[in-house]
Amino acid sequence: MQRIALDQSVFKLSPWNDPVAQASPGDTICFETYDCYSNQITQENQVLPFSGWDRVNPATGPLYVQGARPGDILRVEIMDIILDSQGVMRVGPGSGALGHVLTERKTKFIPIKDGKAIFNERLELKLNPMIGVIGTAPKGEEISTGTPGAHGGNMDCKRIGKGSVVYLPVHVPGALLAMGDVHALMGDGEVIVCGMEIAAQIQVKVDVLQNLWLPLPMVVSGSDLITIASEATLDKAAVTASQMMLVFLQQALGMDAQEAGMLLSLMGNLHICQIVDPLMTVRMEFPLWILEAYGYRMN
Ligand code: CA
Ligand code: CA
Question: Is the whole-model pTM more than 0.90?
Fold first, then answer.
């Protein structure tokens, strides 16, 4: 399996990044990833400045996928996420939604033992390894790996884990896929602006889909189809994620908008991904079995 080393990383997803590796459709590639602090934290009492959005979340890559052309869709199947042996968290002034009350700084290592996060002597937490940052080159602009958007990026969607499939837009030849910011565990919202940050090895299978329209970014995870939207406010992101799914239901199932809206209001579930990045991210989850009942199958 081809591997991309963790120091082959970028802080911006950009059409002007030079690819560090190439793959063909159907290939499986291993992205070695730093934690979001570039593996710089070695001691809990270490004094590190809280860096701006341009210096967190190194993303390994970008990978050039042969045959991917603007207008295509990049299909990224997460085959495995192999975690390092411990994660790290930090809080302090400016820590996301709670920075105004968490005024004392603290850094905490969280070791992993027997597949559980050892939070303290009392608490062992079940892991949910997920990818915080995964995206392709945006169209005509570069975007910090701290920011989510239509190209993917820092979506912090906890449903992007092992076995899920992420659909991303192709804006430039080769798509230029990059990823990082793995969390061993994170709650919806990511309220203090970090999950259990951890270095990892992500194995993905890449494919190129042509002549297909999907509202992007889109994810298949477990028994759900998921649309993801990032906007200036949670309210806007909720509307956009809903509308993306509405349009998809109309297109995929041939429903009129009213019928699709009713079904979405009955069976769709909105969830917050994160409320702490430069844009807010919301996802709409919809059961795959309903698509299958109409004979629609995701590629
Ligand atoms: Ca993140
Ligand atoms: Ca993170």
Answer: yes
Ligand 2 centroid from CA 146, angstroms = 9
Ligand nearest to the CA of 274: 1
d(CA 197, CA 133): 12
pLDDT band at 50 (very low <50, low <70, confident <90, very high): low
How remote is the CA of residue 34 from the centroid of ligand 1, in Å?
A: 13
Handedness of CA 234, 283, 61, 58 (dihedral sign): positive
Whether the CB-CB separation of 296 and 243 falls below 8 Å is answered with: no
Distance between Cα 156 and ligand 2 center (Å):
7
Tell me which H or E stretch contains 238.
helix 234-253
- Exposed / middle / buried, residue 212 (Cβ in 10 Å: 0-12, 13-18, 19+): exposed
Res 94 pLDDT > 90: no
Nearest 10 degrees: CA dihedral of 100, 102, 106, 108? -110
Max CA pair span of the chain: 59
Q: How many CB atoms lie within 10 A of CB 91?
A: 21
